[in-house]
Amino acid sequence: MHPRLFTLPPFDLFGRTVGPLALPTYGLLLVVGMLAGLWVVTRQARKAGLVPETITDMAVYAIIAGLIGAKVLLLVVEWPYYSHNPREMFSLLQSGGVFYGGLLGAIPVAFWYARRHQLDGWRTADVLAPGLVVGQAVGRIGCFMAGCCYGKPADVPWAVTFRDLYANRNVGTPLDIPLHPTQLYESAACFLIFAFLLWMAPRKRFHGQVVLAYVFLYAVARFVIEIFRGDTVRGFVLGGRLSTSQFIALLMIVAAALILPYLMRRKRVAPAAA
User: Cα–Cα distance between 228 and 218 in angstroms, integer?
Assistant: First the structure.
């Protein structure tokens, strides 16, 4: 685990001492994930016969809205803490937030952009889904490097032990205790979903099939992985029976199941040649 990729010692700049300056590994990998996602979206848009520049612009707007939504949902689920420690709200700027908050923030912005540019919403969503999930896969590696989103104590051969004091102070990572590497569980799940979506895209039978597959598969994976999570920052509902993300995952599964018959009745598309 390396929460800081490197740290520059204090140095003199125009007569003033600056530093030390650190490059957070999580922030770097978050940017890498976004760029990877945008690259995938551009390629998928071109294959789908859409204008890559238009879809990429849409993705950028959605990313910005997603970053805001992720932090807003974190503020909501942890409101009892932040309401009693208002100065800690500034720490939200350093946090990635709650993913489902980001998704809920990005969806209306993407819908608005699609309507404004007269894009087929489901067709466009199919293009965006692979880029979104590969960005998640890379981003979760950043979580592992930062020590956040950690798992419960574990007695398995692949358990990980964190020892970085900075991570402990910054995100509360337990030190010297073998834990489930839940960040890597989710990263691996997202990479597998990404590969499946790329395989499905040229073979889909109707617009919306790819994004519904993403919603369903990610929700199932997230629900299961949450069982092994050890951090409490993500919040809980129903008297602690489900985490906030598990509850949202169940809603996503139900939504996908309800939307699927409607999309299957729409005009089918011929699968592209492999």
Answer: 16
d(CA 229, CA 192): 20
CA distances from 95 to 23, 26, 147 (A): 15, 10, 12
- Find out whether 37 and 29 touch, Cβ atoms under 8 Å: no
Rounded to two decimals, the pTM is 0.84
Per-residue pLDDT tens digits for 198-240? 999 999 999 999 999 999 999 999 999 999 999 876 677 777 7
